[in-house]
Amino acid sequence: MKLIKSAVAAALVMSFNTVAMDARYEDRTGNLVADLPAAESEWNDPSTLIFAYTPVEDPAVYADVWSEFLAHLEEKTGKNVRFFPVQNNAAQIEAMRSGRLHIAGFNTGSTPLAVNCAGFNPFTIMAGEDGSFGYEMEIITHPESGINKVEDLKGKQLAFTSQTSNSGFKAPSAILDAEYGLKPEADFNPAFSGAHDNSILGVAHKDYDAAAVANSVLTRMLDRDVVKEDSIKTIYKSQTFPTTAYGYAHNLHPDLQANIKEAFFSFDWEGTKLKEEFERNGESQFIPITYQEHWEVIRTIDTATNVSYTCS
Fold first, then answer.
1. Neighbouring C-alpha atoms within 13 Å toward the C-beta of 206
2. What is the CATH number assigned to the segment(s) 136-241?
3. Nearest to 53 by CA among 34, 73, 76, 33
4. Contact 101, 50 (CB under 8 A)
5. Which keywords fit this entry according to its UniProt record (predicted)?
6. Backbone angles phi, psi at 47, to 5 degrees
7. What residue segments make up the domains of the chain, in order of their start?
8. 67, 151, 244, 286: which could form a disulfide with 105 (CB 3.0–4.6 Å)?
9. DSSP readout, 80-128?
10. From CA 30, how far away is CA 218, in angstroms rounded?
């Protein structure tokens, strides 16, 4: 792991198990996620389940992509299921924290915040047929920017997505500082686009000099011809990170939690819109994960960049 072995290593001596979870949740088992409330009166068994996918430029596209899976989820849970088009990471986290969101896919960087501030319990991610998973952070530019290497970002505008995003903010911030000595404002001009799609389109249309994005999103946009390959140039590619985490609110009835898990792992991808969309990244199944193990590198980056999981 290049990042962990770099100059940020000195900042990584903290124990990640000491990250403070919001006081409304309990981690009695020590696995870093909120446990089911001890009192059955606090278990939630709603008649309608609300599902949200991580924020994207056009949520309507993904409502259709997820439609067949959500029908399968209805069959397995015996519940009505609705797709909730979230506009940003903060709104998605707040929706689960307030009890209005029951099942979700949180992007890589938002997952720790969702776990600690909203009681999110992640249990699966998408993977290829061979079980491989993940994506890389890429810093991209357009061919006419005059940027050919990371050092050329000095004095230029670099677009991030949002401060909760791993590949869209936290990882590139740590890497640019630790490995290249480049700091926002002092060395380059930061901007925030709100989503990876926006950053990619912004670079392709020359609105931004460069951007830090998840290459899984870039791959899908190139494959759909949303942007042209000759309009984008990559100057940095990171190590592999875990991709979007899928899970449920911690306080759902345990029988419902079991049915939700079964729905993810029994879904037949073949011939579905979900496979058509995500096989562009080589993904064709859901595999089990744990937050404690698979998000360790993300918590490492958060520690190195002084990210706080304080909930408000």
1. 6
2. 3.40.190.10
3. 73
4. yes
5. Signal
6. -75, -25
7. 7-132+242-304, 136-241
8. 244
9. EEEE---SSHHHHHHHHHTTS--EEEE-TTTHHHHHHHH-EEEEEEEE-
10. 37
Residue 290's closest CA among 29, 13, 25, 22? 29
Options 2.60.120.10, 3.40.190.10, 3.30.420.40, 2.40.10.220; which CATH number does 7-132+242-304 get? 3.40.190.10
Whole-angstrom Cα distance, residue 256 to residue 125? 19
Mean pLDDT of the chain, nearest integer? 90
HSE-CB at 268 with a 13 A cutoff on CA atoms is 2
Structural contact between residues 52 and 81, judged by C-beta atoms closer than 8 angstroms = no
In contact, 34 and 65? CB cutoff 8 Å:
no
* CB neighbours of residue 2 within 10 Å: 9
With vertex at residue 286, the alpha carbon angle to CA 282 and CA 287, rounded to the nearest 5 degrees, is 105
d(CA 233, CA 200): 11
Same fold, 7-132+242-304 and 136-241: yes
Q: Which residues contact 261 (CB under 8 A, 6 or more apart)?
A: 123, 124
CA 153 to chain centre: 25
**What integer pLDDT is reported at residue 312 of this predicted model?**
67
Amino acid 169 reads: F
Residue 218 backbone phi and psi in degrees, to 5: -60, -45
Report helix, strand or coil for 138: strand
The number of beta carbons lying within 10 Å of the beta carbon of residue 17 is 11
